[in-house]
Amino acid sequence: MSSVDATQGESAEIEAGEQCRLPAEHHQVWCPNCSSRLEDSRCKLVCRTCGYFLSCADFY
């Protein structure tokens, strides 16, 4: 078996059974109103779509 055959065999195994998993994001980075991603703005997380925000005091 050549190195090319071995590489193709490994990629076929990955495609067949294993999926690449992305690290999970914290739920606080998503807007509870419109499900858009919240953006950092100093000491707040702000939704640019609907205007929702979390201040630093809301985290505790």
Offer a few descriptive terms:
single chain; 60 residues; alpha+beta; 1 helix; 25% helix
Please tell me about this protein's structure.
The chain has 60 residues and is of the alpha+beta class. It has a domain at 24-60. It has one helix at residues 3-17, and strands spanning 39-41, 44-46, 53-55. Strands 1-2-3 form a three-stranded antiparallel β-sheet, with no helix packed on it. The protein starts with a helix and ends in a 5-residue tail after the last strand.
Structural class, by secondary structure, is alpha+beta
Topology pattern, helix = H, strand = E: HEEE
Shape: globular
Which spans of ≥5 residues are poorly predicted at pLDDT below 50?
none
Radius of gyration from CA coordinates: 21 Å
Helix content: 25-40%
Strand content: 15-25%
SSE layout and pairings?
Layout: H1 3-17, E1 39-41, E2 44-46, E3 53-55
Antiparallel strand pairs: 1-2, 2-3
